[in-house]
């Protein structure tokens, strides 16, 4: 006997053994010919069209059992919702032998078991659309009891399991007992499909680029590192796919995009997971002004696809995705929220400003990181409605083209919504000499101890030397966008399997 099993788990294993002894396979191999789904039946069935539902085949997980002796009312949950089965002993076992009903229905079933049923649809005396079962088939015996939740008469949960340790670690069980969780992930897929349709309709090409990279480029972040035995060389999990997509622009594609699974060996919190999804796209012959306009169009389309309106509820706020969005330079944003003009400050001046604002000015930080620190701590939270923060200092943006008219700045924007960055975009740097100098500046920061500074990617520089057309590119955080559009407070709520500490063994 397994001593770590609960009483319920022991009882279920005993039932399993009895079913097998009675010749009933609790895990049958043949396909089960499901023809109908719960919600479709309940939405469409009437007394007038009952002939259409005179023979149905459904399957799902048992969520409640009401034993009335020779009659059982069993509610099953399929991929679309919950429906009731009316199970009568003499219908299931019309002959003299009632052993199947006794062995399976009466004594063999538990909450969480997966069963199939054939029969016809009718409306009970209490007015509930149900299936009058003519056969019952055990498809999977559940050996672990589900968490107990309370449901109303329609089967809707009103006492959800909220323990995050359980919900994130055992997402499979969370999805069973908290039906609204599934809705979030369905919306995530609708959101991604909406983006694909939008970009494909514009003539963009979806591509794949390497996850294992010899140089972790395209962002300022700390990478995960591994070792390739056959090549005897270190490899990095990608922190961004930017430099590979730009190589494709060099190669002659005018518009490429990728939903990139990225990995950063950094902290975890409500908006950060070490593994996350970013959409990046690059379009030749465009600039960051064009990119702002196309981004407004995309976000408006996503809001309409998910909600039917551009007004979206996020927490206690209503956020409008109706274009156009507000635009303000990063220097003006800092001045507006701190009353300090940092536009002409050198590194020492910025350290003084940080001290004045009560911020930690890490000795490893250069000018770009110090400005980023001030904006992140004192300004970012104020931008609830969609706002483009534009025209960043060159030190913050080593892959961005210098501003066409403002010395010391680059053509870059970040899209802020609900106090968080949702997108980052540039007029891309395509001058290989300037790019080499920017990479060399990053190496100097790395030598000062900045473990997020960029490596020099010599192959990317070689690609630029062949000539990359004027290009605009963008990265959009898909997980944060899903959080926003589904009103979820944590990134863990929009990832099926968020990263967690190792589970303690029993």
UniProtKB/TrEMBL annotation:
Give the main localization category: cytoplasm
| Cofactor(s) the protein needs | Mg(2+)
Q: Which residues bind Mg(2+) 2?
A: 421
Which SUPFAM superfamilies does the record match to this protein? Class II aaRS and biotin synthetases (SSF55681), Nucleic acid-binding proteins (SSF50249)
Question: The Aminoacyl-transfer RNA synthetases class-II family profile domain covers which part of the protein?
Answer: 191-498
Q: What reaction gets catalysed by this protein?
A: tRNA(Lys) + L-lysine + ATP = L-lysyl-tRNA(Lys) + AMP + diphosphate
InterPro entries reported for this sequence: Aa-tRNA-synt_II, aa-tRNA-synth_II, aa-tRNA-synth_II/BPL/LPL, Lys-tRNA-ligase_II, Lys-tRNA-ligase_II_N, Lys-tRNA-synth_II_C, NA-bd_OB-fold, NA-bd_OB_tRNA
Keyword terms: Aminoacyl-tRNA synthetase, ATP-binding, Cytoplasm, Ligase, Magnesium, Metal-binding, Nucleotide-binding, Protein biosynthesis
- Whether Cytoplasm counts among this entry's keywords is yes
UniProt keyword Protein biosynthesis, yes or no: yes
| Enzyme nomenclature, EC number | 6.1.1.6
Q: Where does Mg(2+) 1 bind?
A: 414, 421
Compartments where located: Cytoplasm
GO MF annotations, alphabetized = lysine-tRNA ligase activity
Q: Could you tell me which Gene3D superfamilies the record lists for this protein?
A: Bira Bifunctional Protein, Domain 2, Nucleic acid-binding proteins
Show the CDD domains listed in the entry.
LysRS_core, LysRS_N
Q: What binding details are noted for the cofactor?
A: Binds 3 Mg(2+) ions per subunit.
What domain of life does the UniProt record list for this protein's source? Bacteria
Give the record's subunit note: Homodimer.
Family statement drawn from the similarity comment of this UniProt entry: Belongs to the class-II aminoacyl-tRNA synthetase family.
What is this protein identified as?
Answer: Lysine--tRNA ligase
> Which organism encodes this protein?
Pinibacter soli
């Amino acid at each position: 006997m397994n001593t770590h099993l609960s009483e319920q788990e022991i009882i279920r294993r005993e039932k399993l053994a009895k079913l097998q002894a009675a010749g009933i396979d609790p895990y049958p191999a043949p396909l089960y010919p499901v023809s109908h789904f719960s919600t479709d039946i309940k939405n469409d069935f009437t007394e007038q069209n009952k002939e259409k539902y005179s023979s149905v085949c459904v399957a799902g997980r048992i969520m409640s059992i009401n034993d009335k002796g020779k009659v059982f009312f069993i509610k099953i949950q399929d991929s679309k919702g919950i429906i009731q089965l009316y199970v009568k002993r003499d219908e299931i076992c019309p002959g003299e032998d009632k052993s199947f009903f006794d062995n399976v229905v009466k004594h063999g079933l538990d909450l969480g078991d997966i069963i199939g049923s054939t029969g016809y649809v009718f409306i009970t005396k209490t007015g509930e659309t149900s299936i009058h079962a003519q056969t019952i088939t055990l498809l999977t015996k559940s050996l672990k009891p589900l968490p107990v939740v309370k449901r109303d008469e329609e089967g809707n949960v009103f006492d959800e399991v909220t323990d995050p340790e359980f919900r994130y670690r055992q997402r499979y069980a969370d999805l069973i007992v908290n039906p609204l969780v599934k809705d979030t992930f369905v919306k995530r897929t609708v959101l991604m499909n909406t983006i694909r349709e939008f970009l494909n309709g514009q003539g963009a090409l979806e591509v794949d680029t390497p996850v294992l990279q010899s140089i972790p480029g395209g962002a300022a972040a700390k990478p995960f590192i591994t070792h390739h035995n056959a090549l005897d060389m270190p490899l990095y999990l990608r922190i961004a796919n930017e430099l590979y997509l730009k190589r494709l622009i060099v190669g002659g594609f005018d518009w490429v995009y990728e939903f990139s699974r990225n990995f950063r060996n950094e902290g975890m919190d409500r908006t950060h997971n070490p593994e996350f999804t970013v959409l990046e796209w690059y379009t030749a012959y465009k600039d960051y002004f064009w990119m702002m306009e196309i981004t407004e169009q995309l976000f408006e389309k996503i809001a309409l696809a998910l909600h039917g309106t551009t007004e979206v509820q996020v927490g206690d706020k209503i956020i409008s995705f109706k274009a156009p969005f507000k635009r303000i330079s990063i220097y003006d944003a800092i001045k507006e929220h701190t009353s300090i003009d940092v536009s002409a400050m050198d590194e020492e001046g910025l350290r003084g400003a940080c001290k004045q604002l009560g911020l930690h000015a890490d000795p490893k930080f250069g000018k770009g990181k110090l400005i980023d620190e001030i904006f992140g701590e004192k300004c970012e939270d104020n931008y609830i409605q969609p706002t483009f923060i534009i025209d960043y200092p060159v030190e913050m943006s080593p892959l961005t083209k210098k501003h066409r008219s403002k010395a010391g700045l680059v053509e870059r924007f970040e899209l802020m919504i609900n106090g968080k960055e949702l997108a980052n975009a540039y007029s891309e740097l395509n001058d290989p000499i300037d790019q080499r100098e920017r990479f060399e500046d990053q190496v100097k920061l790395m030598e000062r101890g900045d473990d997020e500074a960029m490596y020099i990617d010599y192959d990317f520089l070689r690609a630029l030397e062949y000539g990359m057309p004027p290009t605009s590119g963008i990265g959009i955080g898909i997980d944060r966008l899903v959080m926003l559009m589904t009103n979820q407070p944590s990134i863990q709520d929009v990832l099926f399997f968020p990263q967690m500490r190792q589970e303690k063994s029993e």
